[in-house]
Amino acid sequence: MDITVSYADKKVFLQSNRSEIYVLQAEFSSQNQSHLDQAQLDFIREAVEKIGIPKVLSVCETEVTRLLNEQGTYLFDIFSPEVLPQEGFTVIQMDFGFPHHLLVEFLRRTLQ
C-alpha cells in the first residue's frame, strides 16, 4: 500500500491507495473450526480495508502532527513538504517561512 502525505492548516494528512488486501493468516479461537472459509476471509479483508487502515492512518496523522508541533513547526508557515523514505528511517523535508507577526515582535524587541 502506498501512502501519500500532505500538510495543510498545520496538520498532517495521510491518504492511502486502495490496493488489493490479502489475508495471509487469520485464526478464530473456536475449537469447532480449524480454518476460515472464503466468506469469512472476505469479511476480514473488508474490515481491514474499511475500518482498520483508516483508523491506523487517523492515529498516525494525529501523532505525526503532535511530534512536529513538539518541534515547533506550528510556529512557521510550511511550504512544499516532502516525505522521503530511506533505509530504516524517514526524512521530512520542507521549506518554511517565518510568520510576519513573530518577525515584527522580534525586531521590535531587538531594536529597543
TrEMBL record:
Source superkingdom: Eukaryota
| Keywords from the named record | Glycoprotein, Secreted
Q: Does the keyword Glycoprotein apply?
A: yes
Q: What is this protein called?
A: Cholesteryl ester transfer protein
Output the lineage of the source organism: Eukaryota, Metazoa, Chordata, Craniata, Vertebrata
- Choose any GO biological process term that the UniProt entry carries and state it: triglyceride transport
Q: Kindly list the GO molecular function terms attached to this UniProt entry.
A: cholesterol binding; cholesterol transfer activity; phosphatidylcholine binding; phospholipid transporter activity; triglyceride binding
GO cellular component terms, A-Z? high-density lipoprotein particle
UniProt key word Glycoprotein: yes
Q: Where in the cell is it found?
A: Secreted
Q: Which family does it belong to?
A: Belongs to the BPI/LBP/Plunc superfamily. BPI/LBP family.
